[in-house]
Write a structure and sequence with these properties.
326 residues; Trna Endonuclease, Chain: A, domain 1; alpha/beta; 3 domains
C-alpha cells in the first residue's frame, strides 16, 4: 500500500467523522430547540388558555422548576422556563424556526421586543454563521440601526425581510462604527488606535461587516519623490474592490484630498483586471461637521466619512452620533 494512498484514506475518514459530528450536533440542537418550543407552548396554553398573567406566571414557573429540577437539572430552571415561554410567544409557528440556530442563539433573539429588529438579526445570524457571542455583540452595538438602509424610508422593513444586502459602496458604510472591543483609554494617539485594531482584527472585521478581508497596514505608496502610507487596507470580495481606511481622532475636510490621492494610486498601480473602483473611509471620533458622511463635493463619490465610538451605544448615544451631536 502506497503511503500517499493511505494518508488520503485517513484524511477522508477524518473529514467524514467531522461532518458526521457536525450533523449530529446540528440535529441535537434542532431537537432541543423544538422541545423547548413545545414546553413554552404547553406553559402558555396552561396559563388561562394562553392569556398571560405575569404575576401568576412567575409563581407557576418557580413551582414547575422546583418539581422538575431534581430529575432534569438546570435545563428546567425558572429562568430557562421563562425563556421557553417567551420563545413560544415570539415564535408561535414552529415551522418558522431555523435548524441552523441553537437554543443559545434563540435566548439572545427573544430578548428583542421589536419584531423587525429580531427578524433582521435572525437572518444575519444564519447568513453570516454568527456564534452566540457574535450575535450578542451585534445586538448590543445596535447594528440594525447603524446600517445605511435603516436611514431610508421603509428601510427597517427591508432589513427585516431581506437582511443586510451589499451591492454598492454605500451599503458597507456604518454610522457610527462601534469599537468598544478596543478598550482604549480616554486619551490615545492615532498610532495606538491602529495598533489596537490590528490586535483585535477579528472583531474589527466583524464590525466592518460582509465580505471584508485584511490586506495590509501602513501600505506604502511611492508617488513621485514622496512616500505615503494608508493606515489600513482591506478587500471586499462582494464589491470586488479595495477599501482604504484612514484613522483620525479629529477629522474634517482636510483628509479628503489625501484619501483621493490614495484612491488614484490604487486605481492606477494596485487594481487588477476585474477589480472595481477602490473605496476610501475616513473614520474619526470627533468632527467639525459629522453630518457630512460621504462624498466630498467634486473630489470623489467613493470617499466616505463616519464617526466611531469606543463604547456600546445607548439609544440616546446612537441618536446623537447619527445627528452629529458631540
Amino acid at each position: 500500500m502506497k503511503k500517499e494512498e493511505y494518508n488520503g484514506l485517513v484524511k477522508d475518514i477524518g473529514l467524514l467523522l467531522e461532518e458526521g459530528r457536525r450533523k449530529a450536533l446540528q440535529s441535537v440542537n434542532s431537537i432541543i430547540v423544538q422541545t423547548y418550543w413545545l414546553i413554552g407552548k404547553r406553559i402558555v396554553d396552561f396559563e388561562q388558555g394562553g392569556k398571560q398573567r405575569a404575576k401568576y406566571g412567575q409563581v407557576l414557573l418557580r413551582r414547575i422548576s422546583a418539581d422538575l429540577c431534581p430529575a432534569y437539572g438546570r435545563g428546567v430552571s425558572r429562568s430557562n422556563l421563562q425563556y421557553m415561554r417567551i420563545f413560544y410567544l415570539r415564535y408561535p409557528i414552529c415551522q418558522t424556526l431555523s435548524g441552523k440556530l441553537s437554543w443559545s442563539h434563540y435566548i439572545e433573539l427573544v430578548s428583542i421586543q421589536n419584531n423587525e429588529e429580531r427578524a433582521f438579526y435572525e437572518k444575519e445570524c444564519i447568513q453570516e454563521s454568527w456564534g452566540t457571542r457574535d450575535l450578542r455583540r451585534q445586538i448590543a452595538s445596535r447594528l440594525f440601526y447603524r446600517l445605511p438602509a435603516a436611514k431610508k424610508e421603509g428601510g427597517f422593513l427591508k432589513l427585516a425581510s431581506e437582511g443586510h444586502n451589499v451591492s454598492k459602496a454605500e451599503d458597507i458604510i456604518k454610522n457610527p462604527y462601534v469599537l468598544e472591543f478596543l478598550k482604549l483609554p480616554s486619551s490615545y494617539s492615532e498610532k495606538q488606535l491602529e495598533n489596537k485594531i490590528i490586535n483585535n482584527l477579528q472583531m474589527f472585521l466583524l464590525e466592518l461587516g460582509k465580505g471584508f478581508s485584511f490586506v495590509a497596514r501602513q501600505f506604502r505608496m511611492q508617488i513621485g519623490r514622496k512616500q505615503f502610507y494608508a493606515d489600513l487596507v482591506f478587500y471586499n470580495k462582494i464589491l470586488r474592490c479595495y477599501v482604504l481606511i484612514d484613522l483620525k481622532i479629529k477629522g474634517g475636510y482636510s483628509g479628503a484630498g489625501q484619501m483621493n490621492l490614495y484612491l488614484n494610486y490604487f486605481r492606477s498601480h494596485v487594481n487588477s483586471s476585474g477589480d472595481n473602483e477602490p473605496i476610501g473611509i475616513i473614520m474619526f471620533r470627533e468632527n467639525e461637521n459629522i453630518e457630512v458622511r460621504y462624498a466630498f463635493g467634486g473630489i470623489s463619490s467613493r470617499i466616505f466619512t463616519s464617526k466611531y465610538m469606543l463604547s456600546l451605544p445607548s439609544a440616546e448615544d446612537l441618536r446623537k452620533a447619527v445627528e452629529g451631536v458631540v
